[in-house]
Amino acid sequence: MRIVVPVKQVATLDEDFEILDGGLAVDPDFLDWELNEWDRFTVEAALLLREAIGESGCEVVVVTVGDDDSESGLLSAMAMGADRGVRAWDDSLTVDDPLSVARVLASVIDRQGADLVLCGVQSKDAANGATGVAVAGYLGLPHVAVVRSIELDQASSTLTVQRELEGGVLETLRLALPALLTVQSGANEPRYANLRAVKLAKEKPLDVVELSDLGLGADVMAAAQGSVRTQLAPPDRTAGAEILTGSPSDIATRIREIVQERLNS
Amino acid sequence: MTTTILVVAEARAGELRPITAELVGAARTLAAGGGQVSLLVVGAQTDALVAASSSLGADEIVVVPAPRDEFEANLWQRAVESVSAEIQPDVLLTGYTVDAMGFAPAVAAQLAAGFASDVTAITSTAPLRVKRGAYSDKLVADIAFDGKSSVLLMLRSGSFAPATAAGTAAVRTVEVSFEGVRAAEHLGFVEARSDGVDITKSEFLLSVGRGIQDEDNVARFAALADSLGATLSVSRPLVDAGWVDASRQVGQSGKTVKPRVYLALGISGAVQHLAGIREAETIIAVNSDPEAPIFSAAHYGVVADLFDIADALEASDA
Predict the structure, then answer these.
(1) Tens digits of residue pLDDT in A23-47
(2) How far apart are CA A187 and CA A170, in angstroms?
(3) Which residues of chain A neighbour B252 with C-beta distances below 8 Å?
(4) Which of A111, A214, B143, B240 has its CA at 20 to 30 Å from residue B309's CA atom?
(5) Partner residue facing B108 (CB), from A134, A143, A169
């Protein structure tokens, strides 16, 4: 059995970030990168399934769309225990468009062949919440989004999952493989990779593929692209908070006053 | 120019969800220059939903009989794709909700449509331009859909007003084939946990988030809450990490609270959290990051280290 887990290296903003001239992107000097938080849960879910099946019966492959700097995110996933990694990239890729990324991921996954694809519900930086289910759309895979728990019945190749609705209500569903799931945070307790595992991860196979390897020409990508970012700017903070100033003890006094006022009004 | 808009209604447990009215409101804005708004209702027993949808402001209700009433992503995907093939909408609208996350991106992929999710504003109709957040809502992105004949937008709840229109929509049924759809089987619902404290009953919540850094600090803030006469609540990450029971979680997948005072310490203000405190009367937010999105929702803001403020609150305990 092969479980493919698409992962993303995400950016968080430094406190003093700046937007590049042209107003289209944040200056990369002000970005810190790490493996997407949701992807730690999906990798863990894959590893738990592999443990249940038996190591020799299941391969966990992590894949990403990113430039060579994104390999550290891939390596983090491999250090957790994934068997190998695949990175696809082309400088022309519009990474802030989820359909473009999904189109590439779908080709990578199609070539790998997957019984199960596990995606995070969203990435921390772009938070489109769409790439996973878009991949399912391209691949024609049955899908369930926002899953909190996954159980596999190997004999019948069926999954029992729980989808997490607003308000914390869970819906229990059953579906047959092959399938794609998007997994919500808190679904499990992701394992930490120790230094030895991190070192071993560098010995695992990591393939890099180009769009041409995937048969994705410029016309295919242009047809798939779903959006163009025309500007990035700070939000209008017109109706903002009244900022309380002073020493912590001044502020504590003021907070107590406000609380008193509001509770007694 | 006429704009054809297909709105996908959202329902749960046989009732229309409020997002549906917001979507029709947004659709009417898009159709203002001349257009047709079709509201799609999918399900087995749809009479009640059709009745509830009738005067939201759509021009027509399109009913697609489905093998079941409960939402199922793969079935809904087929229904939307089939109806789209028939009416060729310029714009498709869904909510940015758990249900819609299950099918909308797949529809957009299959239709090679333009796509944007968690849309907070539509800034222009022709050409279509929208806004959505970036980097946890610290920035706002303007999005365009050059060259796309059809665009699917998932709208953020609470960002668009329902239509003020009245009138009654025409109703028609479209038979869709669900042949070949591998739908998941519905086995049941598990209600949200209701054991533990009921934070929705408290007038004063002291709410903590990732900023408290360590599980060992939870007890300190629980004690501070007690001494202030507040109930402790938390944002999702503390529940995901297993530090606090889910009954204390505020936010989209937790509880919606309406206390008189919501004192948030070390909560950045992710949109899913803000969804849970929209109707809190007074929000006081303490965060060391001046760009934290919580400050746009708060009435009072403090840019400071929450531990300094906690120290001061503890010291001032009369």
Answers:
(1) 888 888 888 889 999 999 999 999 9
(2) 12
(3) 166
(4) B240
(5) A134
